Amino acid sequence: MAYILNMFKRNSLLIALVLVMIFFEVLIQSTDKGSLFSPQNFTNIIYQNSYVIILAVGMLFLIIGCGNIDLSVGSIVALIGAVAGVLMVNNEYNIYMSMAICILLGILIGAWHGFWIAYIRIPSFIVTLAGMLLFRGLALIVLDGITINPFPYEYLQLFTSFVPANRADAYATTVAVTMVIVAIYVIGVLYGRISKLKKGYEVEPLSGFLFKHLIVLAALIASSLLLAQNKGIPVILVLIAAVVIIYAFIANKTVVGRRIYALGGNEKAAKLSGVNTNRLLFLSYVNMGLLAAVAALVCVARFNSASPMAGTGYELDAIGSCFIGGASAYGGVGTVGGAVIGAIFMGVLNNGMSILGVDANWQKAVKGLVLLVAVVVDVMSKKRVTN
């Protein structure tokens, strides 16, 4: 019995996500308001949460590294979206040059935050709160308080098109791609487990290992079938996958990733071990600025407009995704996969309550309670370990 409880505890987030999906599907079906898992709605969930996932990955590295958060990412999205609109729509600049300028601006904003936090040692809450006000104000100034649209068709195609372009081939292509991904995933997880066993590392029990990965594979196959029945694989999903894979590799397989975890575990110990903690903290904020710029480009493509009020509340969704996904408020604990699952969890809550017609104010209340519960569980588990 204890073994089964431990298995469920290790995979509690995945189980909670599945249960929430089933809960909303039953409610939606019972009220004859469609289906959470209709092909069109599933694609819509991906688009709705694409920029939240990107922001959550960047936020995760801040939380892991030092328990810090960035309150300004929503305002950064608005400012960079405004700059993109002025460049591409008003001045008709080359879309690739405009995107490069936006990415560079995001990096500079991240460096601005990183300088004050890492080297001057001003608390991150103060710096990013100031940034939230500053960049929102600059977005209003750049756009003169109005919304700019439409964006060039070529730019929209970079983020809103599907693979393959021909809808008639969508089903066959999506299934073929899924088969390749499933094969790579199975080979990868088996190789990783066998490699750990050969090196004498501790691994999770076989039943828990199979339970977790079978859920992932089932979700992957079911998702691909839904996409295949709609228009195929959204290009934005390819971008999200690339971001998640790259940052998961950095977190788990590189020296920088190990140092970030060490920084969050104990900054003084990491510094005494030879880690340049100031530079690492600085680069974490630079990275956050970079990903905020990417999220901004995705956001304006989805809405086909640049608005001075864009990005409102995005910082809260990104932070909530990380904590719901298992990141510790104290730093040093968290995974990219957990942050992605947390973002999907938030997305399902948003989408499910919207379909059911739940008032927007109640939606915020529910998300606030979910976030509070996630942090309380983290704090209480830390106290049990300490005691």
Automatic annotation (TrEMBL):
Keyword Methyltransferase: no
InterPro entries xref list: ABC_transp_permease
Membrane topology: Multi-pass membrane protein
Domain of life the protein comes from: Bacteria
Transmembrane intervals: 45-64, 71-89, 95-118, 125-151, 171-194, 206-227, 233-250, 280-303, 323-349
Keyword annotations of the record: Cell inner membrane, Cell membrane, Membrane, Sugar transport, Transmembrane, Transmembrane helix, Transport
Subcellular location: Cell inner membrane
Keyword Nucleotide-binding annotated: no
Coiled coil regions, renumbered to chain: none
GO-annotated cellular components: plasma membrane
Main location: membrane
Pfam families from the UniProt entry: BPD_transp_2
Family matches, as CDD domains: TM_PBP1_transp_AraH_like
GO molecular function: transmembrane transporter activity
Annotated family: Belongs to the binding-protein-dependent transport system permease family. AraH/RbsC subfamily.
Free-text function comment from the UniProt entry: Part of the binding-protein-dependent transport system for D-xylose. Probably responsible for the translocation of the substrate across the membrane.
Protein name per UniProt: Xylose transport system permease protein XylH
Species, as recorded: Succinivibrio dextrinosolvens DSM 3072
